Structure formats: structure tokens, C-alpha cells
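quick one, 331 residues, struct below
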Amino acid sequence: MERDPSPRRILALTAGDPSGIGPEIAAAAWRLRAEHAVPPFYLLSDPDLMRARMPGLPLAVVWPEDSASAFADALPVVPLRARFTGAPGRPETANAAGIVEAIERAVADVASGKADALVTCPIAKKPLYDSGFAYPGHTEFLGHLAGGARPVMMLAGPDLRAVPVTVHVALAEVPRLLTTRAIVETAGITARDLADRFGIARPRLAIAGLNPHAGEDGAMGREDEDVVRPAVAELVSLGIDARGPLPADTMFHPRARATYDAAICMYHDQALIPAKALAFDETVNVTLGLPFIRTSPDHGTAFDIAGQGIARPDSLIAALKLARAMADAKA
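---
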């Protein structure tokens, strides 16, 4: 579908799992809109659930086209066809239909120009799997909705952008799944989107080694010499400013971080531990490689604190701000 050439200056926010903290951090982000310069957004959710969970919160049940004008005085909620049920902290398989519908409709809204970018509240995989959901996770489902695009996860904070090549797989599976092609594709998508969506003319990529000390010239495993180093050479041949494999234990101190724009890491925790340790409340999950902009908080559903009124909206606010900035940079 052809995109409307005139941006509506609004972001689509999906409901996430309603048993988690999504409803309350969405409401908190709206309440802090003036204090934290939160860009306008609308929430795809069940208005009845929002009224029950957030008594006293001004709500406006709207279509996406009317949400920007409503944002100043009320949280715009675009109603789902599906209804949400259950209590905070108790995930329900029955909510899977609404969770999926919110994602599908938000993607369609961005594709049609009703919204400029997509921001997603956290979901949990098990209730979706129990309902027959056929995708490993949120990101893979977005890749499917984008026509089979290869999505790449980036954790973006004020001091570090980190990208894992392998993501939600057991650590024992990483050496088997890590290939030169996967590293080149992940780093290539990262370099392209850093240029197109972050305005970095010539992105610098630091490529981590897999093994301690980047393999110590093969003494601690051959993967760095046989898989990672050829990937770095291919990236350089493609005109990408890449270097490595670098020992991961010395990549993330301040002087090292000043030398690159993104760290390409070999597995999930190698990327996410430093990103979250440096700025847990300000780091944003960005999906690269899609034909639309998608950001998300870097935390999960937090069922253990849902409904207690203590969940912090910082990461969601950061995700909304980054989505707005990326949309503006691309416009």
C-alpha cells in the first residue's frame, strides 16, 4: 500500500500483554507528556481494560486519524476488535488474539501512513505459543508482516548501540548457528540503517569475537579465525568500516566505545548485558532491517510487579522519543 506523503506526526503504540505492565507504562508515558516531551502516540488496546486498570485516566476512544488532536487532553485509544480479560500478573492465553491484532493493525497503520512509526509494549511468548502462535517472537513476526524481511535487533542507549547476531537461542547452539554469512548480513543491515535512520554517514562497526580473547589466535577455539575474521574481511571489501574480531571483555569501556558507532556481538547476552548495565532505564530495543520503524522498551512484561503502580515508564518514553527522531530523520 502506498504511504501517505504527509506525516501525521503520530506514533502507533501496541498494547503488549495486558497482564503485564504495558497498560500502566503507556498511561504513565501519556501523563508525563509535557514534563518529558513525549511525542504524540495512540494506544491500540481494549478501552474497557484501560478504564478498569487506570481509573481517572482521561481516555479518548478514537480512530488513528483523530488521535493527534486528542493527545493533548486524553490518552487516545484505538479499540481492538478482540477484548482483553484477566488480572495484572496473570497472563491469559485468551488475550493472544488481541495481542496479535494490535501488532498487525499497527503495522498496517504505519504502512498506510496513518502513523509514522511503531512502538511496541512488551509481550510474553508462552501465552502466544499456547494459542498456536507460529513465530519465535515479536521481532520474527514483524519480519513476516514485512513480507519476509530479515529483522535485526539493536539495543540502543545513550552510550552504546549493541547488535547480537544470534538472538533467542541456547548458548550451546551459538557456535553451530554462527556463520560468516549471518555476521555479514547482520552487520550490513546495521550499517545501512545507521546511515539511513540515525544519520551516521559512515558507521563504524566493532565486531566482537566469540571466544575469550577473541580466540587467542585459535588457542581458545577456531570460530574467531574461521568464521568471524572472514566476515570482517568481507565487510571491509564491501566498503563498511568494520574491525575485529575484538575481545569482548575490552570492547565496552568508555575509551573503546568512543571508537565505534555499534558493536556487533555474537550472541544475546554478549550484547544485552553491557547495554542494560550501562543504561537499563534508557535503552531501547530497535528493530533494524524492516521497511518501517519499530522500537520497544528493553524490558519484558514484568508480571511480578504488574498492577502495583511501581513500573517505570522511562524505557517506553525513550522508545517513543527514538521512534519519533528516526521517523523525522527518514522523512
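The longest strand covers residues 241-246.
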